[in-house]
Amino acid sequence: MGSIAIEEYQNFSKASFPAEANTLEYAKSLDAKDHLRSFREKFIIPSKANTKTKKVLRPETTSDDPCIYFCGNSLGLQPRATAEYLQIHLNTWASIGVHGHFRDLDDSPLTQWQLLAEHASKQQAPIVGASPSEVATMGSLTMNLHLLMGSFYTPTATKNKIILDWKAFPSDHYAIESQIRGHGYNPDEAMVMIGPDEGEYEVSTEKILSIIDQHASTTALVLLPGIQYYTGQFFDIKTITAYAQSKGLLIGWDLAHAAGNVPLQLHDWNVDFAAWCTYKYMNAGPGAIAGLYIHERHGKVEYHEGDGKPIFRHRLSGWYGGDQVGRFNMDNKFRPSPGASGYQVSNPSVIDLTSLCGALSVFNQTSMSDIRKKSLNLTAFLEHLLLSTAGSDPAFRIITPSNPEARGTQLSVLLKPGRLDTLSDMLEEAGIIADKRKPDVIRVAPVPLYNTYEDVWRFVQIFNQALEKCA
């Protein structure tokens, strides 16, 4: 499956940099050799002036003074293809109305609406290392997590715990909490949180396996993030999945910060299920339609020889999960589509799907292995400049793992207390957009598709100047 889904990922050693690395000339030399440098032109980079506007503006075709946008871990920039794809959809709707559901048009990059979700899923599959039939494009991340837990969280009186991350994104935490409560159990007893040792932020794989060991006999589900949103740690999905399953547990992954960021091989790693959003590293737009993965063994649909009734894994069913042949028979006899599409519920938003397809058209021109190659170097350059210019008594600590295989593009920088708001305001005034997480963390995410080494160098200069003023 890996050979179908993504190129074999090769381990890259951590990049090293010469004495002259902290110069604009050196940063520009890295950009000149960047194998993805042409991709920056495929995105609209806001100008510094536009980031401060309070009016709706038409974006400049180009800008001599672009902002430094290090917030792709929160919301990716708009691909230039997005407007083109959306206009094609609007023209289709205006021209043929309801016929757009079943008619393919010449010279359109979009399929008929009835098949557009499958079209988007096929394009997402290589990004997450799955076969197209194992991916569904639908809903939103939290809604999909609820739907997936509706199928995979089947607690009993003796096995009702869910093992989760110590600092899960609030939406995940609330979803897990409400699922447990909805089954009549106490979240205070049934939520097992895996956290780092005191004073640390990285959670070792060994500790995760140990917690699974301790609670395996009373656990119904393991649900963890592929990348921890606060620290940026990339968990060892393959090892943790295999260990949980060896203990008889089902395991799912929230890939909000992993999809489009790091190479994944969900099928080959035997992951039971996963879900992700598409508005971060996949650049589909704010609140865009999400994706989910179901391993093929959980998507099988078989039929009784006698009465022809379908046999399938329980799920919270909806009309759009029915097989396409019989979907419009309206006979109220649910026959799910095989694979992940059988977990769909509602008719998906075509405008959302169109925006996603526009964004995915950019990914189609490269590969996750090429993206990862630049990501490792770009983030290593950021780390090197931050640490080499920090002085003997630094005002910050990088809490993201230093091992490049244990992180994506993001570095989480923990500031000394009382500096976050002032520093963030100074960065924003200088035309730098990054993400802050109270009380003291700034998350910096140079995205390989549109950020440059020069961006990184300029950011570090301004960051250090701002830190001096915060002291």
Layout of secondary structure:
Blueprint: H1 2-5, H2 24-32, H3 48-51, E1 68-69, H4 80-96, H5 116-128, E2 135-138, H6 141-152, E3 161-165, H7 170-182, H8 187-190, E4 191-194, H9 205-215, E5 219-225, H10 237-246, E6 250-254, E7 273-276, E8 290-294, E9 302-303, E10 310-311, H11 350-363, H12 368-388, E11 396-398, E12 411-415, H13 420-429, E13 432-433, E14 435-437, E15 441-444, H14 453-470
Parallel strand pairs: 1-13, 3-4, 3-5, 5-6, 6-7
Antiparallel strand pairs: 2-8, 7-8, 9-10, 11-12, 12-15, 14-15
Helix pairs in contact: 2-14, 4-11, 5-11, 6-7, 9-10, 12-14, 13-14
Task: Describe the 3D structure.
Helices cover 34% and strands 12% of the residues. The radius of gyration is 23 Å and the shape is globular. Helix 10 (237-246) links the parallel strand 5 (219-225) and strand 6. Helix 5 (116-128) packs parallel to helix 11 (350-363) and helix 9 packs parallel to helix 10 (237-246). A 7-stranded mixed β-sheet has the order 2-8-7-6-5-3-4, with helices on both faces. By secondary structure, the protein is α/β, with parallel strands linked by helices. The chain is built from 14 helices and 15 strands.
Report helical residue fraction. 25-40%
Cα distance spanning the termini: 53 Å
Low-confidence stretches: 1-10
Structural class: alpha/beta
Give the strand line-up of the largest sheet.
2-8-7-6-5-3-4
Please give a handful of descriptors for the protein shown:
single chain; 471 residues; alpha/beta; 14 helices; 15 strands; disordered N terminus
Structure summarized in a few sentences:
This protein is of the alpha/beta class. The longest helix has 21 residues, at 368-388.
